[in-house]
Design goal:
The chain is mainly beta. It is built from no helices and eleven strands.
Length: about 120
């Protein structure tokens, strides 16, 4: 089992920044990919960004590319999402995930961007 704890959500103004963190614990030795999804009210959960631990390769949704760099601290089993140039449409619950055989999910953290 892998446990994920997210932090860093909150309220920001359009154009502002927030930084999300996600710390993994438990059976992390087999973990090879961590990242983020988000779910806005009335919409399906969508992929945001990911980092592959084997080579630190990153991947992004087109909607956040260039604005939300993802990074990680392998020694701390922690992944970060730096959210810059925030837009009201970025408002959502952000979920961290980790893949270690199966995909594990965090509890989610609310991000609200006001115009």
């Amino acid at each position: 089992q892998v446990q994920l704890v997210e932090s860093g959500g909150g309220l920001a103004q359009a154009g502002g920044s927030l930084r999300l963190s996600c710390a993994a614990s438990g059976r992390t030795f087999n973990m090879y990919n961590m990242g983020w999804y988000r779910q806005a009210p009335g919409k399906e959960r969508e992929f945001v960004a990911s980092m592959r631990w084997t080579d630190f390769n990153t991947d992004y949704a087109d909607s956040v590319k260039g604005r939300f760099p993802v990074s990680g601290d392998y020694a701390r089993s922690t992944v970060y999402l730096q959210m810059n140039s925030l837009k009201p449409e970025d408002t959502a619950i952000y979920y961290c995930y980790a893949i270690s055989g199966v995909k594990y999910w965090g509890q989610g953290t609310q991000v609200t961007v006001s115009s």
